[in-house]
Amino acid sequence: MAQHDWLGLKKELPRKRQLQLTVLSFVIPLVIWCVVSYVPWVWHPLIHITDPGQVDYFSEGLDIPRADFYKELAQAQAAGQPLPKGYLVNPVYLPAPHKVACAFYTAFKTPPRLQDEPWLHQSLGHSIRTIFLGFLFSSLLGLPLGIVCGSFRFFAKLQEPFIEFFRYLPAPAFGALCVAILGIDDAPKIAIIVIGTFFQQVLVISNSVRKVDPALIEAAQTLGASGWKIVRSVVIPASITDIYTDMRILLGWAWTYLIVAEVVGTMSGITLFINQQARYRNFENVYAAIAMIGIIGLSTDMFLAWLGTVLFPWKRKGVRKERTHTIFPLFDRMPLKSVIKPKLEATNYVAQ
Amino acid sequence: MLPSEIKLPDYRELAPSVTARFEKIRQRPVILSIRALKKSFGANGSTHVVFDHLSINIHRREFISAVGPSGCGKSTLARIVAGLDEASGGEVLLDGNAVTGPGPDRGMVFQGYTLFPWLTVKHNVMFGLRMSGKAPSTADTEARQWLDMVGLAKFENSYPHELSGGMKQRVAIARALANNPRILIMDEPFGALDAQTRAQMQAYLLQIWKKVDVTILFITHDLDEAAYLSDRILVMGTNPGGVREFIENPVPRPRSAEQFISPEFLALKKRLEHHIHPPVETEDVEKLPMIKLTEAGDEVE
User: Fold this and answer.
1) Residue in chain B nearest A234 by alpha carbon
2) For residue A241, which of A296, A129, A317 has the smallest C-alpha distance?
3) pTM, whole model, 2 decimals?
4) I need a labelling partner for A321 at 20 to 30 A (CA). Which of B99, B184, B200, B223 fits?
5) At B5, phi and psi to the nearest 5?
6) A·B CB contacts under 8 A
7) Contact partners, residue A142, CB within 8 Å, separation at least 6
8) What is the pLDDT of residue B116?
C-alpha cells in the first residue's frame, strides 16, 4: 500500500520515482510545446501563403490571419479566379521545437552580420564574465560583512537598518547613475549586479549566521574559546553550509539582474545577441539563447550542490554512506565503509 | 508488600565506612565554593527569585548531584558555575578565585551533546586543546588518549552524526575532560538517552570519575541517578525556591546496580521523593473531572 502512496504529505518518494518525475517535469512543457507546434488544428492562427493566386495584397511567403485568407478564398471561388494556396502556421515568434533544437547548434555557427558584432560564444562569455565579476565584488564585501553582522549585535544594529532600506531600491534605477560615474562599458553593468546582490547578500548571510545554535557557542566558551576565536572556529564553520546555500541562491538572483545590467550603457553580452536576433526575426536563436541561460544557471547550481557534498562531508547523511566519490577520490576524506562495523563493537564495549 | 510499608533505616544513619569516607573528603581542599548565591528574574518590581542564600562547598574529587523539580534553578546553578549565566548576588569561587565568565577550568557537558558537527570525533576532543594553544601534534596525541579512555578510539575519524546518543555524550565528556578542568559540570547529560543507554552511561561515568582527578557537579531530575552516582545530593525546590537539604549519600561505595534495592538506597530515595513529590499533592492530581464516555461494563481496570 505504502508504495503507491505518491501523494503522501511530506512523504519521501522512492529514488526511481523521483528520477522519473524529474524527467517528466521537463517532458511535460516540451510535449505541450510540440502539440502546439505540430498538431495543425491546435492554435495555428495564420496561413503561410505559397501561392497568392489573384489576391492583390497576398504574396508568396506572407503570413495571413486565417479569417482573412478564408474570406479571400471564398471571394476567389465565387469569381472563378485562381485560388490562393497556403498552409497553417504559428506566428513567427513561436518556432517549433526542432528549429530551436537546431538553433542550439547553428546559432554558434552563424557568423555575425556585421564585422564588429560578437559571435554567440563571445556574447555568452561576456555575460558569464559580467556575472562572475559582479558576484565576486559583491561577495568580497558582503560575505565578511554578513558574518560580522550575524556574529555581533553591535554591527548588526549599525549596518542592517540602512541595508534594509537600500535593498528596496531597485538596482536598475541606478543604471543612469552608474553610466554617469563608470562610463558605458562593463563597469556599470558589474555595478548593477553588485547593487542587486550585495544588500540581499549581507542580510541573508547575517541571518544564516545568527541561526547558529547558541549551545555550540556556549560549549566552545566552556572549552576556553572567546571573541574572534569563537567566530573563526565555531560561528563560521557552524553556518558555512547555510552560507554556501545562500550563495547558490544569490548567484541565481545575480543572473536575473544580468539582462537588466546588460542594457545599461552599450548593450552587450547575451542581451545584445537576443535583441539582435529578435530584430532579424530569428526567433529560434532567441529561444536557444534564453534556454542557454537556464542551462548554464542550472548546471552551475547542480555542480555547486555536488561540490557542497564534497566540501562539507559532515552534511552527508546515512543514505549516502556506501557512495564514494570515484571522480575525486582525493576529496573523500571520510573512511565511509569503516564506520558502520565498529559501531556495534563499541556498543558492546559499554555493556561489558 | 509496598515499599512504603518496609521498615527502612534513617537516611541519615551512615555506615562506619561511609562516615570515614566523608571524613576523608572533608579533609581535601575545597575546589568550588558557592557563597550566598542569588538568582532572580524580571525587573520593575515583579521579580521572581529562583534561589537565594545558596552556599555550598565542594571538595576535590567529590561527586555532587543537584536534584529538584523543573523550575527549581538547578540548571541555572550549573550555568552560573560555568560562567554562562550571571548571578544576581553572591559569588562562586573556584580554588578561591571568583568566577567571572566561562573558562576551560570548568568543563561542561550539556544535555544536547553540543558536539561540533563539522569536526570529526578526534577534532572535537582536540578543540579545547587547540584553543589553549597546544601544538597540533600534542593535541592529537592527547585527544587519542581521551578517546581511548572513553572507548571510542575506533571512531576518531567519524563525524558526530554517525554516532549514537550515548557515544556522542562520551565524546562530549572526553572533550570536556581533555582540558583538565578543575570541575566537570554536567547539566542533565543523560536526559535524552533511553533507559538502557542511560544506565550504561552512569556506570561509565563512575569508571571515568575514578580514573581522573576531577570534581563533578551533576544536574539531574532522575532521583535514582543522583542516588546511584553522588557523594552528596543538593535538593532544591520551588515556591519558595532554594535549597531544601544537602544530603550525604548513605549508600556505600563502590556502587553497583544491585544497590538499587538496598535499605540505604531506598531510605535515601524515600527522603528525596519526600522533597520532590510531596505526598499531599498527588491526591489532587489524580481526580480528573471526567464524565464517563464508555458503555457500562466496558471497564479497563
Assistant:
1) B116
2) A317
3) 0.81
4) B200
5) -85, -15
6) 103
7) A197, A198, A201, A202, A205
8) 96
